[in-house]
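Example 3.2
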Amino acid sequence: MLRRLKLLVVLLALSLVLAGCNRVGLAYRNLDVIIPWTLSDYLDMNAGQKSWFNDNLKAHLAWHCTTQLPGYVDWLDRLQQMADNREVSDAALQARTAEAKQAIGEIARQITPSAIELLQGLDDQQVQDMNNALAKDLRKRQDDYLKPSLAEQIKARAERMSKRLDDWIGPLSASQQSRVNAWSVALGEQNQAWVGNRARWQAHFIAAVQQRHDADFPQKIEQLLVDRESLWTPQYRSAYAQTETAARSLIVDLMAESTPAQRQKLTRKIDKVRSDFQSLKCLKSTPS
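Structure, written as tokens:
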């Protein structure tokens, strides 16, 4: 669900694959995407709400940059050490993924009070418009990911993964591409579980927002944003675990077959992300 974040596919990209995002910059440039809906896409805010949101977003970005980004730089260092030392193992990837999930959780907890306040201030028409926009988005995902035949879904998934990998390590060899294809085949009807779970989350979310003045509304939103797993469908819980395991296995195998040129590109990519972080003014002013 994270477009999450939404926070953090080879090595660094593993967490991005699992989170459904391949742009590290989103984690600190647009904190609103950490939650499973993008405000600009689904909510038409009035002038007062926009002003309030922008002020709060600036505060969240300042918190994120000064308190969270230093840890991300350390995380990148650990990733690079894994690559440089050829120590890409299932255990190491599990550790890096757990760290990334923890970072995403910290951001979700930080922004939840602001999300609650904003949602409580919506009028009935805004809620209806948001419901309509979410429903439209869900129908598009169903059309894109469920209507094609299973063979077409598998092919498209492999193509998306190959494109992400190319961004991190360059063109794949024939053997590596074959491994990606096998990975996609093994995931089977994962799209069904993913879209079904998103539909469930959206239904819970809209039901909560429609009762936004109830005393337990903050607790409901906290569950939706921070404790999302508690609302997962059994099908998706199983599929997610399978997806994580399959992704780690894929990365381990691809890195075992990686060429010096691919590892060099990965190192340059990690260096670029690290430089992007370190160039931020707020990070430069953070005490070491």
